[in-house]
Every structure is written in C-alpha cells, then in structure tokens.
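User: structure tokens for this one?
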Amino acid sequence: MKYLAFPLLLFFLSCSNDDSTSSFIDNDLIIDDTAAVSIIALDSDSNSKLILQDGMSVEETTSSLGRYHIGKVIRVRPIDEFNIEVTNFAPIDLEDITIIATINGFEKDIQLFKIKKLRAHAQRVMPYLFIDGKKHTLDIDGNKVDLTSLVTSGVNPNHITFNFSGESQIAKKLMSLAKLNWEIAYHDYNDDNNPDRNWKLDPTPHDWRRWSSFIINYGYTVLREEYKESILNEPLFKNDKVLQTREEREATYNKLINKPFYRLGVVAHVSGLGGGSTLGVGPGQLKNHVTKWSYAVINHEIGHTLGFKHSSSWAGTITDSNGIKRSTDILINKVNERVKSGELDQLPISIDNYYMPRDFDFKNDTDPGY
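Assistant:
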C-alpha cells in the first residue's frame, strides 16, 4: 500500500469486512466511519498545517502553492493514486463541508468525505479514506456506493475531479463564486528585488492572507445582481470616450466573469497595476478593504485587465454630456454602500469572521498605505 505520512498514519480498525463500520483516530485526525459518509476534522496543528503564515518564504507563499479556482476555495487535488491534498484558501473557519468527487466509471458524483471543522488556511495531505477505512459512501443523491474496486489500484489522478458543498450561509456564498471562471495565483513580480520598480519587495504572508480575503469579497461583489444591473442599465464608455451599447456592456461584464486567470501581486509606490492576467494593489488597499469598503482601485485595475484605458468608464471616470460622471468604480462602491447600510447581504469575509484580525490592525502595521 502506498500513502504519504503527514502525520504518520496510525489506524485502529474494529472490523475487516467491506460493509463494516468503525471509528479510528489518525493522530487527532478524527475519522468517523460509523456515519454514512466518513467524517474528519482539520482544525488543529495535530491534524493539519497552515499556509500563508508569518515566517514562510516568498516561494512557500507563492509558486509552491500553485493555482486555485476562486469557486473552489477548498481545493482538493490528487498527489498520486492513493493520496490527496486538501487546502482551504479562505481565511475563515468553516464547518460541515462535504467533499464531492467525480470519478471516471462512476455514474454519479460521490460524497467522498465530510469535514466537520476546517480551519482557515488549513492544508492536509492524506490517503483516500476508503484505502484503510470502510469501502462505501453515498452518491450526491444519497444512494450507497461501493468503492472496493479502488482499494488496490487507487484512483488515476487524471480520472478524478473535486468540488465542495455546504449548507451554511457562508459555504453557500463561497460556492456561488463558481459562477466566476477565475483561477488565482499569488505572484512576486519583483523577484530581482529592484527598489525602483512599482512592485513590493518580498511580499509578506500577511499580504497574501489579506489578498485571499479581498479577491473573495471582490468576486462576490461583481456577481451581485445589483452590480450587474447597474452595468447593463447605466451609460458607460469604452476606450476613447465612445459610448457603449447595452450589448457591449453585457459582453464586457461576461468577459470579466469568464476571465480565465488572475496572477495577484502587491504593488509599491502606486495604488495598483493591471493588464492581461496581472492584477496588483497596494498594502493600503489590502488593509482597508474590510473596513473602508472602497473597491475603486481594484475595479480600476480589473478594467485594465479587460483591455480598457483611462479614456473609458472601466478604467477611468468619464463625464457625459449631462455632466454626470460615469465609472464602474462609482457603481461598485454604490453597491458596497448598500451592503454597509444593511440593505444587501454581507460579504463573505468580514473583520468578524477573518481568522487573524491583527492583519487589519493599522497601529501595528508598518506597510505604507498607498
């Protein structure tokens, strides 16, 4: 049998036949095989490690993490035929999450396992539970599924994909981000440490922690029906101050939703930079997005990633013939004002549920507030 040790796996099984139920503990990774779908917890240092923590290198907090889909902030990926890696890219604790697997040869998606408690930014490498646990689970419709055929061979990494589900309001908000096509990666744009460049020297783990919050909240905001309707119904200008038709505004909005990739960075000396897949904002923007609710800078840079110049409403502010300022920055901030007033539901991440509130403590923050 092949599996990775993180930590060393110690199984205590009470029965050996395929239909048995048992409970066992793997160094505090509690696995309940008595439930129809096995239940684990990733809620402490004994059963998971943390990503994006102070003291980690730039390499550890950027390229080593790889990409994740914003609609799958709980990323599960195969390591090999017998092991998977579970990572929570959301900076909040979650409960009662179900990991869903689509496996070639199985008629329906299956409930691979449940996570009773999942701490913010937790990561765990673990074997498939059916290798040494019970050999059955449920599909998404609640029907029993036999996994015995996978015990010896494991699962070809190219033949399985993963998703997650949950019934809590916060889980549903995170799941709604699947409407976005964005893959996300954290990137050091100043790897030669040139102080004259407009990118921060050695972005810190707390930069990426705050980015993990900001990109979720921004994505949730652009998906709000109120923001989409304001895009469709208010006059906006494309490059060179040319008025867009409604069809063009809708096409631009859809282009934003379907953007395939954003490589996030942290700027210096300026408020933001953007273009293509490049998206950067300054430490000040990262600090105040949960307190001041201003998304103008990130929205401006998003406009650049969509191909717009400052002579447009998507990456600038254009005054129309009636003297009214037209900008998507204004529109998105109006939406967030309605959130602040309580008229609209709250954003997924707030100072109340973010797991490390000191990241937003201005008194102890030495970063400049660009």
